[in-house]
Amino acid sequence: MKQENTEESRRSRFENIARTHEGDLFRFAFWLCRDHSIAQDLVQETLLRAWRSFDSLRDESAARYWLITILRRENARMYERKRHPTQDIDDLTPAEQGLLANTPDTDLADLRAAISKLEPDYREPLILQVLLGFSTAEIAGLMEIKQGAVLTRLYRARKMLMKSFEE
Amino acid sequence: MNCLEFRKQFGADPACQDQPLLAHRQACAACARFADRVQDFDRKLVLALRVPLLADQGGSYQVPADTGLGQGRAWIGLAASLVLGLGVGLLTWWSAPHRDIAQDLLVHMHHAGISLVSTDQRVSNQQLATVLRQSRMTMSQGIAGVSYARSCMFRGRLVPHLVVQGEKGPVTVMILPDLEVDGPTSFSEQGFFGTILPAATGSIAIIAGEESDIEAVSEPIIQSLRWDI
């Protein structure tokens, strides 16, 4: 009985975490691969892998960092396995175009298109900072690069976007 | 710090609260305009990056019923329970009456025992900014007397939990994005006084041992806090 309660509590804690971060994970996955179906697969794989290693999460307030780490690794694995072709913004399916342009605000749609065209090296730290609220030190840890390199990429990413958006 | 250094640093991290950065912004009108422009642009960036979740997106992930390892993808087929259906429960839970919110706040406050401690220890503005950023908020200026700042799970959401050392003791501040209240709500329970104030798209709950500390602590927070979403 005690073991069942423990298992139930473990499941409940995981469900809570999954529910809290599911939206962020999907959005991060979408901006990584710019493909709705792959993003869904990626989140599914991430949560399954996270569940299997849930006992390794010591501090549940760090769950988002932990999940994003898993998602990044899973993305690298999927990329290696399937070698997804890079999606050109102009070749997006109607569903993906819908995701990017699902707003009456044309400025917002243009900005989404501009973000999508950024090189992944610039797009990823920007998403981690602006969308997910990670500090530059945390981004450096996630991307396994120096904090200085993160700052440079963030500066350049904003500069490119502001230039293309404000032109 | 010169203008070029300011623009590089601010352009990379507009939420940075480093003192030299803030000082340069105050001293240089051109860089202050640049900073305003970057922050305006960042608000648009947040909106742009928050692509809508599709109808089949929310609550579609499943936790396996079996915890065994090494069963390969077969165990995915055993998946059961998780999120589907819980979304409704969560919504109900999150939008429960204010009195329940007050009780939940007190439970959380007691659970995180640090909320009850008077201390000279202070967290840096950088640390505070990091916690706020995790909930997509920023401060326009530092908040004095913060002895504890951490992102905590409250009602299934990650929310900033701060403790500010007031004149008469520690004051707990929980910033609750998305938990909207119609107007200010006060409560007094278990020897604590509290108030829940509407703010932007959510609310701010402030709980103290002495009523007089609440207003003194809430004012600078309300003034400084910026809800980026």
Helices and strands in order:
The complex is a heterodimer of chains A (167) and B (229).
Chain A: H1 2-33, H2 36-52, H3 63-82, H4 94-101, H5 106-117, H6 120-131, H7 136-143, H8 147-166
Helix pairs in contact in A: 1-2, 1-3, 1-6, 2-3, 6-8, 7-8
Chain B: H1 3-12, H2 19-27, H3 29-49, E1 63-64, E2 79-80, H4 86-94, H5 98-111, H6 125-134, E3 137-139, E4 146-154, E5 157-165, E6 170-176, E7 185-189, E8 192-199, E9 202-208, H7 211-224, E10 225-227
Antiparallel strand pairs in B: 1-2, 3-10, 4-5, 5-6, 6-9, 7-8, 8-9
Helix pairs in contact in B: 1-3, 2-3
Describe the protein in words.
The complex is a heterodimer of chains A (167) and B (229). Chain A has 167 residues and is mostly helical. Chain A is built from eight helices and no strands. Chain A folds into two domains: 86 residues, RNA polymerase sigma factor, region 2, helix turn helix motif (Rna Polymerase Sigma Factor, Chain: A), CATH 1.10.1740.10; 67 residues, Winged helix-like DNA-binding domain superfamily/Winged helix DNA-binding domain (Arc Repressor Mutant, subunit A). In chain A, helix 6 crosses helix 8. Chain B is α+β, with helices and mostly antiparallel strands and 229 residues long. Helices cover 38% and strands 24% of the residues of chain B. Chain B has a six-stranded antiparallel beta sheet with strand order 4-5-6-9-8-7, with helices on both faces. In chain B, strands 1-2 form a two-stranded antiparallel sheet. Chain B is globular and about 55 Å long. The two termini of chain B are 31 Å apart. At the A-B interface, helix 1, helix 2, helix 5, helix 6 and helix 8 of A face helix 1, helix 3, strand 1, helix 4 and helix 6 of B.
